[in-house]
Amino acid sequence: MLHHFRSASPPPPPPPPPFFFHLFLLLRLCRVISSRWRFFLCFFFFLSFYFCLSVILFFLLPFFLSFYFCLSVLFSFILSFSTSFLSFFLFLSLCPVFFHSFFFYFLSFFLSIFVSLSCFSLILSLFFYFLSFLFKYSVGINTYFFILCLSLSLSLY
């Protein structure tokens, strides 16, 4: 009489060590991005347009406004777009792995980058805002500059 024995399933692989885990997540994200090359291509063109616009504003605005105002606008543009760029690819990378066990690792890792960049942009904007006060620029430009940088930094939330 033949008995059919079911082979026991192998134990699940151990989780990667903590030192290499972020590298593993970054490689997985690169693989997800490369599989969505159309999105990446569109956002690359959008990034280049956004950067050129900020550079043009940086070189044209000193004829009308203060140098520190233009510098802060440039930094706010670049940093706020980098956070939105990261959040978009966070969405793309989380779609295929939503039901996997390391979903929350992805979420915590990229949200920490997102929040830190946004906070850095806000702190840098406030720094240039108070720096322009030291050089006695007009209060109207300072108020407009503060509202602009605050909206650029916090609109991503």
Kindly summarize this structure in a few lines.
By secondary structure, the chain is mainly α. It contains 5 helices and no strands.
Would you give an account of this structure?
Keywords: Membrane, Transmembrane, Transmembrane helix. The chain crosses the membrane at residues 40-60, 66-92, 104-131, 137-156. By secondary structure, the protein is mainly α. The chain has a domain at 68-157. 75% of the residues lie in helices and 0% in strands. The chain is built from 5 helices and no strands. Helix 1 (18-35) crosses helix 3 (67-94), helix 2 (37-60) packs antiparallel against helix 3 and helix 4 (103-134) runs antiparallel to helix 5 (139-154). It is elongated and about 95 Å long. It starts with 17 loop residues before the first helix and ends with a helix. Residues 97-101 have low confidence and may be disordered.
